[in-house]
Amino acid sequence: MKIVAADVIVSSPDRNFLTLKITTDDGVTGLGDGTLNGRELSVASYLRDHVVPLLIGRDPHRIEDTWQFLYRSAYWRRGPVTMAAIAAVDVALWDIKAKAARMPLYQLLGGASRTGVMAYGHASGRDLPELFDSIRHHLELGFRSIRVQTSVPGINAVYGVAAQHSADGKRYDYEPAQRTPLPAEEDWDTRSYMRHLPGVFEAVRHEFGPELPLLHDGHHRMTPIQAARLGKDLEPYDLFWLEDCTPAENQEALRLVRQHTTTPLAIGEVFNTVWDYQTLIREQLIDYVRSAVTHTGGITAMRKLLDFAAQYQIKSGIHGPTDISPVGMAAALHLDLAIHNFGIQEYMRHGALTDEVFRQSFTFADGYLHPGEQPGLGVELDEEAAARFPYVPAYLPFNRLQDGTVHDW
Ligand code: EZ4
Ligand code: CO
């Protein structure tokens, strides 16, 4: 078998996605996701200009060799653009291998270790009544684990709160990237946030009881000592995890947080290799690995990362926002089903237009996702539909403090 074509397809049904389609000489095709939110075209260029020419003529079955070749022959290693590009190739090759074997991908990864993949949904609200409504709505949709994000008094726009951007007041799922020519400016005050949040979790526990697994995303905004304090303050509300409590690139910060709180910690959605986790895993400073298959070099690299984590009883919490395409989501689900140290899977439903472009076979019922039994990943790209939705420039927002200082978003 030989690779005869590799097409880079950037489409924007509800938002931008970068898809790589690899075609072999016997007509088998594979899909990979390389979507890097707000920087999609850099990955498209990396692939088109520098990787596609290297793929033509290669044996698609040599996945490990192709991964090592792309990683090491570039000389310039790691980084989100490089690793998203390698991920797109890697996942497309796994799709091809599994289709050629006439098996769903999870079978090639060792077979199912569980009957379904527990997912958490995103509830949010500007105040408690709106938040409670959103939690109830997610429970009705079938979610059995819920991430809770709320507005903070005195702050106009806060990460993770759906309704705040909606002009007509209609509820919609949270989508941080905005189709604006410049990044939207949001405001932030860590002390107000830390004063407000424990009361929100107290109210949610009071309303929904002690059983429901609750999660929260701090989105890189606290200093180590602030994060330590928030973790302690949230202990009575028994969080499933506190995510990205400090800026993720400072691994040592987690030592201080860990010494002060038993609230479980999740980190790493902005990471792209196992090296970003070296201290975190070896010193058991975290409980969940948040990497996305799409941003961490694909199935090949994620498998190694999660096997490393497993030796320290650290579990998976694979990143699954809307900016991971259905292709990247399917890849995550096959991995989730197969690995032993599965923790939880983030799941934000895509919009209707995205479902037109990507025909999916994964299912969601009673709180559990399943990748389905189609050979390969189980996702087909409708290229005609994709062509109807060309790329639209979009940016993630950024934060300024009250005095105008730029802050982590
Ligand atoms: O802000 O994927 O846990 N989920 C998140 C996401 C990220 C976006 C950035 O592209 O933090 O909402
Ligand atoms: Co996050």
TrEMBL record:
Record Gene3D superfamilies: Enolase-like C-terminal domain (3.20.20.120), Enolase-like, N-terminal domain (3.30.390.10)
GO process terms (BP): amino acid catabolic process; carbohydrate catabolic process
PROSITE patterns, sorted: MR_MLE_1
All copies of domain Mandelate racemase/muconate lactonizing enzyme C-terminal, residue ranges: 129-264
GO molecular function, one term: magnesium ion binding
InterPro entries in UniProt: D-mannonate_dehydratase-like, DgoD-like, Enolase-like_C_sf, Enolase-like_N, Enolase_C-like, Mandel_Rmase/mucon_lact_enz_CS, Mandelate_racemase_C, Mandelate_racemase_N_dom
Family annotation (SUPFAM superfamilies): Enolase C-terminal domain-like, Enolase N-terminal domain-like
Protein name: Bifunctional D-altronate/D-mannonate dehydratase
